[in-house]
C-alpha cells in the first residue's frame, strides 16, 4: 500500500537522519568514542557521555520488535489500516526505530519477522519504512 506521508521537521539534530535515505542507505547516529548507536539522534552518547557523535550507514536489516494495526484516519493522507511498528536493527540489541511495515498484509506481521528498509519521500525527508 502506498500513502502520502507528512514531512517531518528537519532540525539540526535530525536533518541528516531524515535526508540520508536519498541514496537508499539508512544512517543512524553513532558515538565515535565507544561505538554505541543512538536513536533517536542525540548530541551526547548515552553510554560514555562523549560529544563525538555522527551518522554512519547501517545494513537496513531488522526484525519486528512490536507492532499494532492502525485502523483510524489520524491523518487524511494516510488511509488505514496500516501497521505501526518498532523494529530492532541488527547492528545493536535494543536499537529500535518507530516505522511502518509495508508490502505485506497487516495480519501477516509477526514479532521477530525479518524486515529490510526502504524509503518513502516526504518533502525533503526520506522516511524509512520496512518490509519483508
Computed over alpha carbons, the radius of gyration is: 15 Å
Topology as a string of helices (H) and strands (E): HEEEEEEEE
Which strand order spans the largest sheet, edge to edge or round the barrel?
Answer: 6-5-4-7-8
Q: Shape from CA axes?
A: globular
Low-confidence runs of at least 5 consecutive residues? none
State mean pLDDT (0 to 100 scale).
Answer: 93
The largest sheet, given as strand count, sense and whether it forms a barrel, is: 5 strands, antiparallel
Strand content: 35-45%
Q: Compute the separation of the termini in Å.
A: 14 Å
Helix content: under 10%
Number of helices: 1
Can you give a write-up of this model?
The chain is 4% helix and 39% strand. The protein contains one helix and eight strands; from the N terminus they run αββββββββ. It has one helix at residues 15-19, and strands at 27-31, 37-38, 53-57, 61-70, 82-89, 96-101, 114-122, 125-131. The strands form two sheets. Strands 6-5-4-7-8 form a five-stranded antiparallel β-sheet. A three-stranded antiparallel β-sheet has the order 2-1-3, with no helix packed on it. Strand 7 and strand 8 form a beta hairpin.
List the helices and strands and how they pair.
Layout: H1 15-19, E1 27-31, E2 37-38, E3 53-57, E4 61-70, E5 82-89, E6 96-101, E7 114-122, E8 125-131
Antiparallel strand pairs: 1-2, 1-3, 4-5, 4-7, 5-6, 7-8
Amino acid at each position: 500500500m502506498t500513502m502520502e506521508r507528512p514531512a517531518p521537521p528537519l532540525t539540526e539534530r535530525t536533518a541528516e537522519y531524515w535526508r540520508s535515505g536519498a541514496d537508499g542507505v539508512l544512517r543512524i547516529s553513532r558515538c565515535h568514542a565507544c561505538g554505541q548507536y543512538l536513536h533517536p539522534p542525540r548530541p551526547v552518547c548515552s553510554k560514555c557521555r562523549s560529544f563525538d557523535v555522527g551518522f554512519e550507514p547501517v545494513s537496513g536489516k531488522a526484525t519486528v520488535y512490536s507492532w499494532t494495526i492502525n485502523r483510524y484516519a489520524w491523518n487524511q493522507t494516510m488511509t488505514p489500516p496500516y501497521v505501526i511498528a518498532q523494529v530492532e536493527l541488527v547492528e545493536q540489541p535494543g536499537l529500535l526505530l518507530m516505522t511502518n511495515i509495508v508490502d505485506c498484509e497487516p495480519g501477516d506481521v509477526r514479532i521477530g519477522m525479518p524486515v529490510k528498509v526502504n524509503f518513502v519521500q516526504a518533502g525533503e525527508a526520506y522516511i524509512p519504512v520496512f518490509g519483508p
